[in-house]
């Protein structure tokens, strides 16, 4: 079946089998290996991408279900060579060790901040509760997202001036 | 790597179109809504539909949460997140907020639907207990038109529902009455997990006595996800701690929990009693 999916603002048309999962479409057909693939059972959240802006676990979405829709992966966070605030936050606050869970965490964090620019710790913990990190623990991840929130607020204040 | 068996994929662009496609492909076709029960089952080859009819494009026809007359109507394609965030639904029935906050995790909730949850018919599904407690009605559409089935008759066994292979669940309708309080209590092993046991309660109180009680139970082998004997006991009683504890004991007596990786049967029976008691007390406090 022929599908056209917009990924990080670029349109891709491919012939795929209906049973192809979105995670494999992104990784194997488009070479966007930033989206990781872990438990394969919709539990760990490393495969999280945004589908029309909404975080979803791409191991449990068929690629054909994304036909005509917009997907954002971790590769789409950076803008013109500038890292997104959530990426900077993870750098600043040691939000990762092995980095396996990080792409999914970053996308969920961005989606959270888009809706709630100033989340408190419990809102952050709730937002990432469908994702597992086996290295860093959640303390630094929460701190990284808080850092990004503060940075976003500072940036929009500067822009307003 | 888990890969589903091959299947034909069709996208429905209206409810009549979905019904035509179901008719065309016959009983081996399945509807896919959020896909968060069906796709995992297909990956494990526990389900091997020959055709998938995608109804995700029907959010207008099958979506929406609104009060219509003395009922709250919830479309089958309403996602868990939308129900959780709906002030209309959760102000009227806080049981929705209690339950949705602990169904899976926020990312799964972005995708899974109310209709899919009911149609999956998993014996541990949270929303099945919620809608049973609320005495909701399911609206089902088939080639011959629409029909309604009380949610308490909707589940005919594990993974078996009143929806025929050529039909769609369209909507759930919940009766709205003044003086109603509701609550949901769940015990899970870790955040986002299926329940070890859970209980929902809906109480209508007039002039200091209970005029109607609804009790929903899941994961404990309660027939049709409800506890009619405990409800009958509460009818006409004064809502107090003793009545709620006794209702919990009666509810627990009538379930048939099975031991599994989530716990032994006697523990689940204990939970059925205790969670029913707590849900009733919290529901009463919300009137
Ligand atoms: C990691 C994880 C954790 C979970 N935890 C919980 C939990 O704690 N509690 C809980 O209750 N659930 C839990 N679930 C299940 C989830 O909430 C729902 O069961 C699931 O989302 C089903 O909804 P869906 O829209 O994804 O259905 P689908 O998977 O699309 O469909 C399920 C079944 O219903 C049929 N169907 C769907 N919509 C219709 C319709 N409108 N008419 C007719 N047939 C239809 C399909 O053909 C299929 O047979 C969990 C799921 C996952 C993946
Ligand atoms: S790989 Fe998708 S949730 Fe783990
Ligand atoms: S940084 Fe290694 S799993 Fe999270």
Automatic annotation (TrEMBL), chain A:
InterPro entries: 2Fe-2S-bd, 2Fe-2S-bd_dom_sf, 2Fe-2S_ferredoxin-like_sf, 2Fe-2S_ferredoxin-type, Beta-grasp_dom_sf, Diverse_Oxidoreductases. Gene3D superfamilies: 3.10.20.30, [2Fe-2S]-binding domain. PROSITE patterns: 2FE2S_FER_2. Pathway: Alkaloid degradation; nicotine degradation. The keyword Metal-binding applies. The keyword Kinase does not apply. It is an enzyme of class 1 (oxidoreductase). It comes from the Bacteria. Its EC number is 1.2.7.4. This is Carbon-monoxide dehydrogenase small subunit. It comes from Nonomuraea rubra.
TrEMBL record, chain B:
The keyword Oxidoreductase applies. It comes from Nonomuraea rubra. GO terms for molecular function: anaerobic carbon-monoxide dehydrogenase activity; FAD binding. It holds the Pfam family CO_deh_flav_C. Keywords: FAD, Flavoprotein, Oxidoreductase. InterPro entries: CO_DH_flav_C, CO_DH_flav_C_dom_sf, Diverse_Substr_Oxidored, FAD-bd_PCMH, FAD-bd_PCMH-like_sf, FAD-bd_PCMH_sub1, FAD-bd_PCMH_sub2, Mopterin_DH_FAD-bd. The keyword Oxidoreductase applies. PROSITE patterns: FAD_PCMH. Its EC number is 1.2.7.4. Residues 2-179 form the FAD-binding PCMH-type domain. PANTHER family: XANTHINE DEHYDROGENASE SUBUNIT C-RELATED (PTHR42659). Coiled coil: none annotated. This is Carbon-monoxide dehydrogenase medium subunit.
